[in-house]
Amino acid sequence: TWGKVFYKSFEVLGVNALAVFFLSSLFSKILNIPILLNSSGKEVGLKTFLYNQYFTVYFSSYNASFAWALCYTMVWLIVFSALYKKKVFIKL
Predict the structure, then answer these.
(1) Burial degree of 23 (CB within 10 A; 0-12, 13-18, 19+)
(2) Average pLDDT for the chain
(3) What is the DSSP string of 17-75?
(4) pLDDT tens by residue, 27-86
(5) In angstroms, rounded to a whole number, what is the distance separating the alpha carbons of residues 58 and 50?
(6) Mean of the pLDDT values across residues 20-27?
């Protein structure tokens, strides 16, 4: 059921919490490196480009930010679900 899936997602992210924190922070910084040109010709990072192209078009600014956060979290949940299924637990 949905309850099991919901709680399992916390377990998946929780067993590798430091890795999730470190990698998501690192990739957030990498996504902000200006490498693309937006419609006005200004260099922007991949995060800004994706946010403006796919989120602000469909949502208000407040909801677009929330949708981006959900999608970013889901990406990391998928990555760490694969590690969890293979029983890979990153420890210090």
Answers:
(1) middle
(2) 93
(3) HHHHHHHHHHHHHHHTSEEEE-TTS-EEEHHHHHIIIIITTTS-HHHHHHHHHHHHHHH
(4) 999 999 998 887 788 899 999 999 999 999 999 989 999 999 999 999 999 999 999 999
(5) 12
(6) 96
Instruction: Determine phi and psi for 39, rounding to 5 degrees.
Output: -65, -25
Please tell me the pTM assigned to this model.
Answer: 0.86
Are the C-beta atoms of 77 and 3 separated by less than 8 Å? Answer: no
Return the pLDDT at 64: 97
Task: Fill in the DSSP letter of residue 1.
Answer: -
The DSSP code for 86 is T
For the chain, the first-to-last Cα distance in angstroms comes to: 34
The torsion defined by the Cα of 77, 38, 36 and 63, in degrees rounded to 10, comes to -10
For residue 90, give the DSSP letter.
Answer: -
Counting beta carbons within 10 angstroms of the beta carbon of residue 26, is it exposed (0 to 12), middle (13 to 18) or buried (19 or more)?
exposed
